[in-house]
Amino acid sequence: MSIELFGLLVQASIYTVTISFVSIFIGFAIAILISGMLLTGRSLFVRPAQFFISFFRGVPLLVQLLLIYNLLPAVGLNVPSIVAAIIGLSLCTAAYQAENLRGGFASVPLGLVESAEMVGLTPRQIFRRIKVPIALRLTFPALVNEAILILKASSLVSVVGIVELTRMAQDLAGSTFLPLQIFASAGLIYLVINWVVALAGGLIESRLPGVAR
């Protein structure tokens, strides 16, 4: 396979990385809100949050993308395909990240919270200095794993017209009749991207509070 064809795959991978990371960060912001609703314990907030999580974890991502892509114009929102793709991926990953965060906050030892209350820390200080660091430490590996899953799942956004890495590989394989070389190269690029993400995640995790070095 020529360097020119490999270059086209690398260029397409920029779309893959961009769409994935924008979706992951937006999804994380939504996940904080959803997990906060779950932790209130009030049915007014818990039930909508549970429905959100059940829907986006229970419906295949491919169906979600097609649903959002067709729903937005139906309600008068004519947005580019890439926006629809990011919305779909963000909502999907938010459901999984929210469950990870909820589990992390629920795992904070009650004794630590009670000790902090006894020494006079306010609820805000307890949340910021104790709950957030411990919950983040506990959930970080799962969040990194979710980021890798979204990077791989981003191949599905081609159904809404985005020419990302997988779609480019399909187009090149069809036009050059070199499917083995093309898809092997695409797989190598995915492998390198996810290896870098896992490596970066490990480095960040080692620097989180409470981690022995």
From TrEMBL:
<keyword id="KW-1133">Transmembrane helix</keyword>
<dbReference type="InterPro" id="IPR035906">
    <property type="entry name" value="MetI-like_sf"/>
</dbReference>
<keyword id="KW-0813">Transport</keyword>
<keyword id="KW-1003">Cell membrane</keyword>
<dbReference type="InterPro" id="IPR043429">
    <property type="entry name" value="ArtM/GltK/GlnP/TcyL/YhdX-like"/>
</dbReference>
<dbReference type="Pfam" id="PF00528">
    <property type="entry name" value="BPD_transp_1"/>
</dbReference>
<feature type="domain" description="ABC transmembrane type-1">
    <location>
        <begin position="9"/>
        <end position="201"/>
    </location>
</feature>
<keyword id="KW-0029">Amino-acid transport</keyword>
<comment type="similarity">
    <text>Belongs to the binding-protein-dependent transport system permease family. HisMQ subfamily.</text>
</comment>
<feature type="transmembrane region" description="Helical">
    <location>
        <begin position="78"/>
        <end position="96"/>
    </location>
</feature>
<feature type="transmembrane region" description="Helical">
    <location>
        <begin position="182"/>
        <end position="204"/>
    </location>
</feature>
<dbReference type="GO" id="GO:0015184">
    <property type="term" value="F:L-cystine transmembrane transporter activity"/>
</dbReference>
<dbReference type="InterPro" id="IPR000515">
    <property type="entry name" value="MetI-like"/>
</dbReference>
<protein>
    <submittedName>
        <fullName>Amino acid ABC transporter permease</fullName>
    </submittedName>
</protein>
<dbReference type="InterPro" id="IPR010065">
    <property type="entry name" value="AA_ABC_transptr_permease_3TM"/>
</dbReference>
<keyword id="KW-0812">Transmembrane</keyword>
<dbReference type="GO" id="GO:0043190">
    <property type="term" value="C:ATP-binding cassette (ABC) transporter complex"/>
</dbReference>
<keyword id="KW-0472">Membrane</keyword>
<feature type="transmembrane region" description="Helical">
    <location>
        <begin position="12"/>
        <end position="39"/>
    </location>
</feature>
<feature type="transmembrane region" description="Helical">
    <location>
        <begin position="51"/>
        <end position="72"/>
    </location>
</feature>
